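Audit log entry. Action: structure prediction of a protein-small molecule complex. Ligand: magnesium ion. The ligand was supplied as SMILES and no pocket hint was given, so placement is left entirely to the predictor. Protonation state taken as written. Sequence taken verbatim from the request; no trimming, no tag removal. Recorded inputs:
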Amino acid sequence: MLALRKSVPAFVVFFLVVAATIGIGVHQAVGFAVSNAVHRDGEVRLRQWAGYINTHLPDLEEIVATGRLTPEQVHKLEVMRDVGNVFRFRLFGPDGKLILVSDKTTTRSNGDSVGGINLQARTAFQSGESQISVKNGEGETGRPDVYVQSYVRAHGANGQPIGVFEIFVDQTKMATFLKAIFGWAAAGLALLGSLAYLIPAFAFLQRNADATRAEDQISYLTEFDPLTSLMSRRSFTQQLDQALARPYAYLTTDAILFIDIDDFKSINDEYGHEGGDQFIVHVANAIKSQIQGHGYAARFGGDEFTVCLPGITQSSLKKICERILAAARKPALCGYQLINGEISIGVHLSHKTATSAELLRAADIALYNAKNSGKNRFVVFNEKMAHQLNARRELERRLHDAYENKEFKLNYQPIMDSKTPKIVGFEALLRLPDGNGGYIPPDEFIPVTESIGLIGPISKWAMHEALTTAKTWPGELFIAINLSPRQFEDGNLVATIKSAIEQTGFPSHRLELEVTESLFLGNTEAVEVQIKELKALGVSIALDDFGTGYSSIGYLIRYGFNKLKIDRSFLVAHDKDPDRLHGVLETIVSLGHRLGMRVTAEGIETAEQARMLGELKCDQFQGFYFGKPMDCDNVAITLLRSTADTMAEVKQLASGVIAGQSRKTGN
Ligand SMILES: [Mg+2]
């Protein structure tokens, strides 16, 4: 409507000009038409009157000749005067001399003016052409408002011209009638004309308004974020670029803030996208309210915001950041629910020789550090962060290359039965070559693999690879494979594992899947459903690294794990404080057994540790003391040494190794 209102004054002026032009034109046209019609009607009436005179006044020739009237002739003429709305007439001789006058009150031939010469009458007689004109009698004494004045020849009994009549015909009624008729017709035409103009004009204006409104909306969407009314990413960077381009800009210090909502995905998961949007608006309002008068802000995308605080001091910056954090921490109202969330802020103090992209990148690096150092805080950028980020980027590149070039490897660490002790299975461990003959530690590359979204496809490959290898192993050896909490998020995990089992033909009861306690920080209901579905496939589920995370007996009861793996940190702690930790380990093993789980101890490095855990009735052992992670060829050799007590097993294993090597070489 804004655009339409803008067009209205011009439209109204234009319409008034057109209407005035039409009005003047119509008025003149009506006047001309009425005058013409009155003229023509008067002409008809004159002919009728002249015919009447010739018929009823045969002695007209005598009157012209003598200039005298008998009373009878006067009476006839007065009767004739009223014929055809004639209210006055005069009779002239051929030379234009006035012979008689007949008006409303009298007809005479000897008045004061009789005898005078009328040039118009003489001209009419000589030319033989009637002279007719329409007159306006308004304001003239004894004259109607509209009348016709004419000079026409008078004829004798034989038809010869004998003089000239000047005849006055009252046409007021005719003119009034015609004016009314033409006036209505003109009004109708004017209305039709106006409509003919107005309808397309209004349609044009409406279309123009629609187009302008669309342009306004596009412009608004380009410059502002429709959800939060903050600046858009584009307009923010434009304004920042303009500020950086100003002369002497380097004399002041600007702060660039990069803000991100902590764990935004969990807010979306819990409250839906409507709740997520509501919290985004809440954070936007928190930012706006705290930077008022100090700078400008934008929604940079998703749950990311940027702020520029020109010419800010360090102390003011600290206060503003703390106030934004506090305002964002306040609960946001969504319907009848309160949403609690937090944000992290990365800050870069510009030196004004950098581009806007460089400033924002530095603030983003600081934000990354704020996230990694606990979230719900602000961190100011320093150069060390840049080096860390470069290392991270390098690792990301390495991960992508390794995935593309199929460079990942699987190692297998033996797991022993505590009573025999014999190898009962292997845990598959993912290895990433560093490209220089070594390996990148898993605790370095696994979190990055998860964060860049590669954990799904890599785990799928690892699952298929491990099952294919383990299928060549003899007897009932199981294979344990670690699952990332991220794999439970996309909903494809069960189908992926089912597919791998079917494709490789590996017996599902020999597959053990290891999950960690961090899995239970997310959507526990969805996790529980998937664990039940996995167990329905016939696989075992082990809780890995027990004791390092959010250990909860509630989880152990709720999920019904098949196995509990005690984290290696307990053995490290036991070496330092054996009296205290012995009881703890005893309790964990006992708890596992009471809940129907087998218990595996990880990280065993000495015979003493194995003996102690055997006494505690731990079911299985894993650690360097029994075997380091090894490739599949060394698995075969290890198995040969430890289990080749019957020729049947040796033969089975040998055939498996040969089959595995053939698969690897493509033979
Ligand atoms: Mg594990």
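Audit: result stored. Residues 1-5, 645-667 have pLDDT under 50 and may be disordered. The radius of gyration is 56 Å.
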